Write the structure tokens for this entry.
Amino acid sequence: MTGKTLYDKLWQAHEVRDNGDGTSLIYIDRHLVHEVTSPQAFEGLRLAGRKLWRVGANLATPDHNVPTTDRDKGIDDPVSRLQVETLDENCQSFGITEYKMNDVRQGIVHVIGPEQGATLPGMTVVCGDSHTSTHGAFGALAFGIGTSEVEHALATQCLILQKSKSMLVQVDGVADEVVTAKDLVLAIIGEIGTAGGTGYAIEFGGEAIRALSMEGRMTLCNMAIEAGARAGMVAVDKKTIDYVKGRPFAPTEDQWEQAVSAWQDLVSDEDAIFDKVISLDAARIQPQVTWGTSPEMVVGIDQRIPDPSSFTDTVKQEGAQAALNYMDLQASTPINEIAPDKVFIGSCTNSRIEDLRAAAKVAKGRRVASNIKLAMVVPGSGLVKQQAEQEGLDKIFIDAGFEWREPGCSMCLAMNADKLEPGERCASTSNRNFEGRQGQGGRTHLVSPAMAAAAAVTGHFIDVRDLSQRDT
Amino acid sequence: MDKFKHLKAIVAPMDRANVDTDAIIPKQFLKSIKRSGFGPNLFDEWRYLDHGEPGMDNSQRKINPDFVLNQSRYKDARILIARENFGCGSSREHAPWALEDYGFRVIIAPSFADIFFNNCFKNGILPIVLEANKVDYFFTEVANNEGYQLTVDLEKQIISTPKKENIGFDVDEFRKHCLLNGLDDIGLTLQYVDDIKAYEEKRKQQAPWLF
């Protein structure tokens, strides 16, 4: 018998029953709830007279609609305000723990889950948000669901699922110091395409993945969905366990030892067979910048924008040309000649303390370039913000001319007031460069926090390594 | 959920790959706490020339004459043909809600993003995966024949063309069953209350820190 993959183990541990028709009933340990994809689910429960199956499995916070400035004044937009108030009311009436807008523990669901220890190794974690794949960084099976499934999880603590195929993305070699998890995952998406992982659960493994911090692994798994995979995951090791220890929802006392012992098994067996294996060499990966309207449209900072005719099939050629038209860019332009109008550092991909430190390191002692209309830093949670302020990162950013904001999803998807104006170009640490994602007509280039900060202080994309050389 | 058994309808083409759910229904409309009324804002940024916001009178807005769904020949379309990776991106179920509210009940593409694909079945929409050359054939036929219609029979898993061609398609048994009968998943799962409770008891022994 061949060994089991981490995904096999997680699946088996949560299978309530095999329905015999290709689906299984899978138990959900943790359900994260936010204001955008839950109101219709709570309404559905009410209409059917259903109760929550297990109240304590749920944890809620508003993140998509919350303002990042003047929070004491509340939410200006009445439609956004109603949605956040609806979450507050639903959590209160169903008894769900919620970190409300002005609670220091409030933040982006995918930042606060791990921060609170509400995400634990070996769990199944769901949320009505595609970036739930983030939590797979803890050796958990975590994936985004639609509102019907939010309601299903609330009512039954289970979901009816079909098992995905398994893919191993093996990244060996040692990445350059400035090459971050964001660069690795963008390079992976560039390699396999935005639909490359469709139908698969991806496990990221190899030397370069083991070398990543937990924050880095979260960034990596966060963008598994941009490769088409509903779930991404990384095996448990000492870093995972050290990160979890002592967090509010983490096991304590004798349960801690028992949990740690169980978590040791959350790795793929050596003889496990994956349906697909992709290998990359981290040493060959450069800092990445996207040039188009899909995360797969990405190249290294040392490259030029590809010519659409260089793509093999006509659908891809037309897609690339349409992307260049939308982005107002010409084929063969060197990436480092592109000048953004705005810089956004934040989102569930890159708003954790390590991300802010990396950006601050670049911003320190420099000034935001005159062509940049706005450079903003939006911490992932109130606690990340607090820690950054204790470390003095806020001062570094403010002194350099960045705006230091309150936590939330902000300009990643522009549901609140933070958005691009038509035609504006943004260096963004978020996860999607789709048309209009950051505001109608806005143009997004996805980069790492250090690369975003470097673009802010020079006024154009630049290899962070060239920046330090230029100063010396 | 409405049942889906059989549909004969006009086909509209969406000729681009990687159509994401942000394009299908832009974020500002996600602020609604309702499940209905998203149809007028389906593909809002492509469909209108002005910027749309919730609460606007859409009948007064300037439409984009170049956008495919604004062409009169596709006015009554209820079947959409699309390219690779349709519905990628955000998990927002507002995307199938908007498509359904607009009138689409079938989407045919070479591939779909997983979450969107799953969400369609929960809302009475049948997403059909067909080989790229077959989808290509429909694109050509639709372009050459105004009023082009297809007949989709879920029971038999067959798409019939005006030329009497029959093209088979795959669909998961469970999803087919739910769609044919308009079944509510939650009701089905609650038949297994005892299994869920038994699982929880066993799991509490193995991993008490999870409870």
